[in-house]
Amino acid sequence: MLDSFSEIFDDDFCVMPFELLKIYGKSKDFLDFFFRGLNLNEIEVSKMTVVEKANASMSAYAVGLHKEVVSKVSVKSRNTLRNIFASEFPSEKYGKARFFGQFERALILKYLRSHNADLFDTYLRRSSDLCGFELEDLRMYWFD
Question: Hey, where are the domains in the chain?
Fold first, then answer.
């Protein structure tokens, strides 16, 4: 996808990895980088109201319940069910759902290491200069 963007936009775009949310911890900081990447410097993020947890994730408990119930609910009601489980059994309260253990994650990172290095060097290096985030902060999420 990024290679296609590169051809279409002649490398005149910025890649904003979501890991920046984990690194900098606040949505306003992420939005500030995002708007800077779009050359929208006149938008004052400090004056915005940002809901930090607007998209609650399901907990491990909710994922288990959802798997049990989803096949018994009409297709029309599945989104409603998903929303109920996410709001009533959030990961903050009942623990995060983990689909891969540490061993599986290490295997995935090892398998994708070369590809991630290419993406990192080709797109994130340039984007860090354009948008002003620290490239080295991302390294642990992409390679460790």
Answer: 2-52+100-143, 58-96
* Model pTM above 0.90: no
CA distances from 72 to 65, 81, 136 (A): 12, 11, 47
Rounded CA gap, 18 and 1, in Å?
A: 16
**What separation in angstroms does the CA of 28 have from each of 5, 23, 44, 84, 132?**
26, 13, 10, 27, 14
Q: What is the pLDDT of residues 9-53, one digit of tens each?
A: 887 777 878 787 777 766 777 777 677 767 677 777 667 666 655
> In 10-101, which residue ranges form alpha helices assigned H by DSSP?
19-24, 27-37, 60-69, 78-88, 91-94
Summarize the confidence of residues 67-94 as an average pLDDT.
88
CA distances from 51 to 42, 43, 74, 120 (A): 21, 17, 31, 30
Q: Are 46 and 80 in contact (CB under 8 A)?
A: no
